[in-house]
Amino acid sequence: SKTGKERTLERKDREGTNRTEALLQAFRQRMGDGYQIEPSEDDRKDVIFKIIKDGEQEGIILYPNSKKIQFYLLCRGAEKTAAILEQDYQKKRDQLGAALLNGSELSMVKDKIVFSLVSSKEYQEALPHIPYKTFHDMVIVFQIVIQDGKERYVRMINNEDMESWGITVEELMEMAQYNTPRLEFPYAIKLRDEDGVWNVLHQEWHEELFYAGRKLRRTAKCIFPVIGLFGERSAANCILYPGVLGFIANRWNEDVMMILGTEMECYLFPEHFYLENPQIVERISEQIWKSNVEERPFLTDYVYRYRWNEEKLEQTEQRIPWEKFPLG
Fold it and tell me: What are residue 42's phi and psi, to 5 degrees?
């Protein structure tokens, strides 16, 4: 049986949880329907709040002092504590700067414009309202990214911005192609197949891609030569960075095959491995399917190839068998 002290601690935990839930409800009511508020925990198990305004991709994160918040809840109640959080949120937005967030002056944001390779299905409704470029069966869209310490703000660039700035989609793409690799450097991870078990958590190496030539050459000769590309916001973006696929192909001395899942999954392997083990496509895609717990649309239904000799990225006729995997 539990001691009196243990029961007291449990009761205090329950009361703290109930107060936090009441605060979340009051905060959502105060901010209104135009905001999405997602609570989570940081490394110290303190509650943090991510606030995403309609039309924005990534929100502003509040890191309130946990003890102070619990004290305010106890003494002032949920509604007054929610008002304090709202003030903190507005201060954060003001710190980022309204002109920078709104993108009213191109000169203020031109070095913060980035691209994202995304699913054309997922963005179908948005495409009439935003600038974009078609890339085979996917699309490239554009955002403004502002980093301020821990805070990252991402806003989609729309047609009104383009009209205000007086630039073309090609000019926008030129800015984004320069900025994106500079702001979101590509990394790579080697995946290892041990005793037939897919072990995606085993990181044999994790280095800046451009210093990994020797390890890439070793990878091509190993039993399971599969690497994953990733960046801070997107793995798929990395295949459009100048020189990345060419660098890998030159180290492997052959074409590079790739499977794209959601924006965060990009797996590459040498052509010889693909020809010797055609089942690898189904095997990798099944793992991607299992990890897609949010059931987001996949970027493409096809395997892609980077042709080493022609320095060209193309869509192959090999389909990715997403439909084979069970729902739910």
Answer: -90, -170
Handedness of CA 232, 236, 240, 246 (dihedral sign): positive
State pLDDT tens for residues 235-269: 999 999 988 999 999 999 999 999 999 998 999 99
Is the model's pLDDT at 284 over the cut of 80?
yes
Which tens digit of pLDDT belongs to each residue from 107-153?
Answer: 888 999 999 999 998 889 889 999 999 999 999 999 998 876 666 77
3-state helix, strand, coil in the chain (%, to 5): 45, 30, 30
Contact (CB, 8 A) for 59 and 40: no
User: How far is the C-alpha of 294 from the C-alpha of 245, rounded, in Å?
Assistant: 29
Nearest 5 degrees, angle CA 257-CA 204-CA 245?
A: 30
Task: Check residue 303 and give its pLDDT.
Answer: 97
What does DSSP assign to residue 292? Answer: -
More confident residue, 49 or 312: 312
Distances (CA, A) of 41 to 46, 129, 151, 204: 5, 35, 16, 29
Tell me how far apart the alpha carbons of residues 241 and 187 are, in angstroms, rounded to a whole number.
12
Whole-model pTM: value is 0.70
Distance of alpha carbon 23 from alpha carbon 10, whole angstroms: 20
Query: Residue 263: what residue type?
Result: E
Non-local CB neighbours of 117 within 8 Å, separated by 6+ positions = 135, 138, 139, 140, 234, 236, 237, 239, 240, 263, 299
CA 300 to chain centre: 17
